[in-house]
Structures are given as C-alpha cells and as structure tokens.
Amino acid sequence: MSAMLPNGTYHTAAGSTLTVSGEHGGTRELEFDWLEEENACIDCVPEPYEDDEGHLVWHCEVCGRGDAKWIPDV
User: Fold this and answer.
1) Where are the domains of the chain?
2) pTM of structure
3) What mean pLDDT comes out for the span 14-39?
C-alpha cells in the first residue's frame, strides 16, 4: 500500500519531479529524470505511486531497481 503523499509538488535530489493533486490525491504528474537518478537508465519504468517510506521507485530488466526520497517543495 502506498504512503499517499498529500497534494503538493515534490522533487528528488537528482531532479525528478512529482505533482500530486485531486480531491483524494489520485492525480499524479511524474517527470522521471532517468539520466540523473542513480542506478537508472532509459529502460527504467517508474512506479506510479511512492513506496511506504515516500520514495520514488523504479525497476528495469537491464539495471535492476532503484529508489529516491521525495522532498516536498517549499
């Protein structure tokens, strides 16, 4: 089950961004910066929802998996 971040804008230290909106936070706009995220490549597929600790998670048959902490924009 997802941690379900509250509505707002978030980023990772490497530059991926997430905007959460909608009545129940169900609308998500993700920009995955695979070039900058550690352990990511062009074949990586990001998960649509964060994990239980509030991380962006991606997986890939080429390079494995990775994750990055979402940081709220101020």
Assistant:
1) 8-72
2) 0.86
3) 92
